[in-house]
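User: I'm putting together a small comparison set for a docking exercise, and I want a reference complex before I start. The sequence is below, and the ligand is nicotinamide-adenine-dinucleotide. Could you produce the 3D structure with the ligand included, as structure tokens?
Assistant: Of course. I'll restate your input first, then give the structure tokens for the complex.
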Amino acid sequence: MILNKTIIHFRKKIAGLAGLNETEIQLLLTPNHIHKAELEVNGKTYPAFRVQHNNARGPYKGGIRFHPQVNEDEVKALAFWMSLKTAVADLPLGGSKGGVTVNPKELPIEELEELSRSYIRAFYQHLGSAQDIPAPDVYTTPQIMSWMLDEYEKLTGKKDPGMITGKPLENGGSLVRDIATALGGVYVLEEAIQKLSLSGKRVAIQGFGNAGMNIAKLLFDQGYKILAVSDSKGGVYNEKGLDPYQAENIKKAGGLLGCYCLGSVCSIKDVPSEGFCRGITNEELLELPVDILIPSALSNQITVENAANIKAKIILELANGPTTPEADQILHTNNILVLPDILANAGGVTVSCFEWQQNLANEKWDEQTIKQKLKDKLVTAFNQIWTEYDQNEHDFRTNTYILAIKKILAAEKLKGRL
Ligand code: NAD
């Protein structure tokens, strides 16, 4: 069984609302397989995991995380969320996750490569394009995917580029993968804006990495007003709107975010503490008077402490798990629409799925085709959930979970496994 705070909440709230019986709950909360190993590199050992949660809808799919806090329970919970995410986007895939307890920043490159290869040596019999398809996650990169593919092909003696996604383009990767999470978020957001007839376009974004920076640029290009962005060192706010391309350049040059105030460059350390352009904390960013709030960094950022102060009308969860269950209830009561992570950030796994499909078919799809397919998938998912949301009193997240669960259980029943 998965023992995780969010999953306990799932059992208490969602299972009841979805009308699940005990057998169905057990099935959803019990991973199909838990594989474990100790990886040895240069005299040191690292615990490693591959958890295969559910494959009723297709081969297992889920990233590999290299992080010092990785543990079995976390990997089990993440594998469960992957099964729900692939079901929401209606991808022909199940859910899994992998992890190694390691701080990869402390490893020389040779040891990082050896660790990546030894992960594959430990688990390769459970992986493959028709079995379980890994991808990058926290602190794992396209380069690591390439080493892993190479090791897999050496061990099995056959070419199978679809056994892993998030590869560099030169090794069978897909176009659009680099911005897929952010672009998927934009498609979901635009549907929600239409449904709510929201005219305001002021945005605050917490986190300025792959997800946060890319969505800042995509929205800016479409005429949204980016009022604030932040990273782990703090945030910058400009009442008149920031240019995220400039913020990126300033960060690249000096390691800190910034904007152009009063015609000159300001990084966080020298923007004034008052006025139309100023430095702000991550906590302040969440409570700004904006129309759209996009948490794109860490989990558990919107809590009982700050939920009542949030002024945005829509929260787009690009980060995984940024809102606690208790805060979610407050937001729902305050009529704030929360677009949950398993839908809002599903663009990443959707384009990963496209990469796998291109590899299996020996094809290369162009950028426009991929973007259109991504839009179709996420807009369809959004509208399916919205129809239910419109007809019952549950919050949008609950309706999203119920849609995913129903799809998984329907596949299980038809296979006679339930
Ligand atoms: P990233 O490492 O590229 O960027 C993370 C950003 O968060 C950085 O700008 C970092 O400075 C910032 N950050 C760290 N601590 C912070 C803090 N205390 N306050 C504010 N900002 C802080 O990571 P990413 O790939 O952009 O992922 C961000 C979130 O999106 C994660 O929750 C991840 O699980 C989720 N996500 C990402 C993808 C993807 O394809 N990149 C897909 C699905 C979900």
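The two ends are 17 Å apart (CA to CA). The first strand starts at residue 33 and ends at 41.
User: Thanks, that's exactly what I needed.
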